[in-house]
Amino acid sequence: MAGGHFDRQSGSHMILKKPGVRLSLSIPDHKVLDRGLLRRLIRDAGLTVEQFIALT
């Protein structure tokens, strides 16, 4: 989901979408995310942890 953009806010979750991809990613709008949740979001985005770190 690298290259995705903010689509909308649904409650306390931000919804990200990427043109041409059917998957949308729902990310909690919290200051701190649990390590397991962060890893799952990275995996759902189609990235490895190393790729995610390189993007930050």
Q: Your description of this structure?
A:
The structure is a single chain. This protein has 56 residues and is of the alpha+beta class. The chain has a single domain (5-55), classed as 2-Layer Sandwich (Metal Transport, Frataxin, Chain A). 30% of the residues lie in helices and 29% in strands. It is built from 2 helices and 3 strands; from the N terminus they run βββαα. It has helices spanning 35-44, 49-55, and strands at residues 5-10, 13-17, 24-28. It has a 3-stranded antiparallel β-sheet with strand order 1-2-3, with no helix packed on it. Strand 2 and strand 3 (24-28) form a beta hairpin. The longest helix is centred in the last third of the chain and has 10 residues, at 35-44. The chain is globular. The two termini are 14 Å apart. The mean pLDDT is 90.
